[in-house]
Amino acid sequence: MSRALRRPPARGVEWEFDKVTFSREFSRNVVTRMLVERAEHGGWELDRVRITADGTRRVVLRRKIIRAVRTA
Questions:
Q1: How confident is the model at residue 69, as a pLDDT?
Q2: With a threshold of 0.70, does the pTM exceed it?
């Protein structure tokens, strides 16, 4: 259902992306609840949504990758 991938850093910020596809059988309210759940518990935010001609929703979520910097 989803696949996480990473893009190269842009201006010091690195993002992790997750592609999710919802079939047309899911109502708008159900999709919204599922995305809110992922945002609240996984730290994801909405990057883009595409609704195809057959009614499926292709959603791209993103979240920042926080790297720990060693201090000596």
A1: 77
A2: yes
